[in-house]
Automatic annotation (TrEMBL):
The chain crosses the membrane at residues 60-81. This is M23 family metallopeptidase. Gene3D superfamilies: Glucose Permease (Domain IIA). Pfam families: Peptidase_M23. Residues 125-138 have a biased composition (Basic and acidic residues). Residues 192-291 form the M23ase beta-sheet core domain. It comes from Microbacterium radiodurans. GO terms for molecular function: metalloendopeptidase activity. Keywords: Membrane, Transmembrane, Transmembrane helix. The keyword 4Fe-4S does not apply.
Amino acid sequence: MAEHNDSSADTPEVDPTSPDRPGRAMRIGFRRPVAKTAGTVATTTRAARRRSVQHPVRSTVTLAAVVGLVATVAIPAFAAVRGETAEAQTLQQVAASNAQSLVVGSEAAPAALDRSGFTATTPEEIQKKKDQEAAEKAAAEALARRLSAASSTASSSSSSTYSDPIPLVAPGSGLVRRPLMSFNNFGTPYAGHRGTDYMVGGGTPIYSVADGTVVASSESGPGWGVYVKVAHNINGVNVTSLYAHMTYGTRAVQVGDTVSAGQLLGQVGDTGRAFGTHLHLEIVVDGTYVNAENWLVTNGA
């Protein structure tokens, strides 16, 4: 059975070596040099010249940029390194050339701080000391004012707050005696004061003004401090005498004791509400307070 091939029958054979083969003609045509005209040659020459002129300029600009970049980065770094090295060397040289030394004499000793005049070391202690000194000064001034006021009234007449003296016995009869061997009467130092104060030194003996019986004897009377109170009957008249501000432990009599005129009762002091040593003497006649000094002048020895 014969094969039917349309392509072999219709296509003529072509010699591969034939110059008319299409494929060969195309390849040969691609490699065949093309003839150049005079205009083309001129254009090419000018372009080559421009490239030859531009190439050195471009290279110079590039080289300058690179050199500038290197200088910008390298010079500060070099300066910094050199500066650090110079600074370190300078500090060492300064330390070596300017070295100092301290020489302390073996005999030197700090001066002693004298605190003999000071006892307070803190602000609180100093303020406390100042307050204490101020209080003591104020108390001393108050006492001086009271003593001055008492002295100014010593020569004056007795206070009118008392009733008139009541004559009980003739002066010098021996029935009434003064409580002190010596005295300095300064009257009534303040309003409401019911007795007469006699300024004498502490420890001065105090005697009973008349015969009588002890009705009170205490170490802590209300405002009186150490005191003794004696009841008397003088010519049928009831009289009481009170002796206040005695010294502690000097009372010589107790309640119920019978005493005679001029008998020792105790010693002068400043106990109770007293400002300075003195005797506070109260005389009551038939229930009425009288001026003690006036009563003694009228009836005393």
